[in-house]
Amino acid sequence: MSDEPDNPFKGTPFEAMFQQFSGAAGAGGTPDLNAIFAQVQQLLSGSADGKPVNWDLAKDIARKTVSAAGDRSMTSTDSDRVADAVRLAEHWLDDATTLPEVSATSQAWSRAEWVENTLPVWQTVVDPVAEHVAGAMGNALPAEAQQFAGPMAGMLRQLGGSVFGAQVGQGLGELAGEVVSSSDIGLPLGPTGQAILLPDNVAKFAEGLGLTDEDVRLYLALREVAHQRLYAGVPWLRQHLLAAVADYASGIEVDTGKIERAMADIDPQNPEAMQEALAGGLFEPEDSEQQKAALVRLETTLALVEGWVDDVVREATKDRMPAAIQLAETVRRRRAAGGPAEQTFATLVGLQLRPRRLRDAANLWAAVRDARGVEGRDTLWSHPDLMPSTSDLDDPIGFAQHAGELSNIDITDFLTDETDETPEPPADKPQDDDGDNPAK
């Protein structure tokens, strides 16, 4: 007769975890569930009860990561330099876009301030992913484990929140050391109508370029201000992007086998080892057709945002800043090497962005501007139904010619009575692995 206690989680990802915890056995070899739950509760000390991500833990880890790498408080000199760059950037952009000035204020942020001030948007982006992963973990329980599901499921949810919090905190802490502005990854992370630079990261970006600090700061301010004008001037864009992330999350399929393998190596007496084992790719979702379609929508919209910014800044600097060509190339190389946007989405929500789509989008916006002028290019942002699709990125000249037909459309034909609703974007087919052509 086996000495192994009955395991109600047998055959599930939680079997190994139960076996580890069942070392706290009572009389007759029967697991002492009170002792087991006491051990788990100790591991979950400080967790945010019932929430998919422990954001207090995430913020704490992010700030500690930033502090360990080195951070300083901003000075009035930092603020003045950023303000000067933003004022000049606004002036230059007036000739490059019809979208109006919106940066009423500018700010110089430390890395810790970036973590603190962008956390609300990260919650909106990451929570849907974490919520679906938590649900998948709960659904893995078999019927015979239901008698234990109440207390154990709640604890596992807390565990997931802590693991996600640690993973997000580490990712944001590392990202805070790289981003040069509030819009560096394409999403509108900062306050509306404020242009923000991180002076220490701007200086890090400038290392080895052989350019003046003023040129680098101004160029990055131009990109930040262009982003701010776009998000302020296109009311549907912010929600459109966040909805694409939520759509992606709703199709998540969790690799429960990965959970089981991670659980097998867990020492319940070692919370740090548990966190490390679970965070090592446990929450990397598997692709589904729904996710692929949502990824295409998100990838295409982000590419169009960044491509538009590239084109606007190129036009604003072409007769004024000789260093802009070198700086634009530096930005492109940074993307191709897996810059902040690619790293962040891959780590936090499992999304892989393709740098070549950004170049394709910049070429498309340039082609539209050449064919229709600055106003004709910017008018396409009036409604998502007018926006280029993924297939249009493969044929920028063809789209630019077609865009001329759109210039005579009355935009009120597209508007709905519910102005706070985000219209559905046109459907696109998923791309192949290299991100250059639609999937066959």
TrEMBL record:
Carries keyword Iron?
no
Question: In which residue ranges is the amino acid composition biased (Basic and acidic residues)?
Answer: 426-440
Q: Name one GO molecular function term.
A: hydrolase activity
Signal peptide range equals: none
Q: Which domain of life is it from?
A: Bacteria
Q: Where are the transmembrane segments?
A: none
The UniProt annotation puts the region (Disordered) at 408-440
Q: Which keywords are on file for this protein?
A: Hydrolase
Question: Know the name of this protein?
Answer: Putative hydrolase
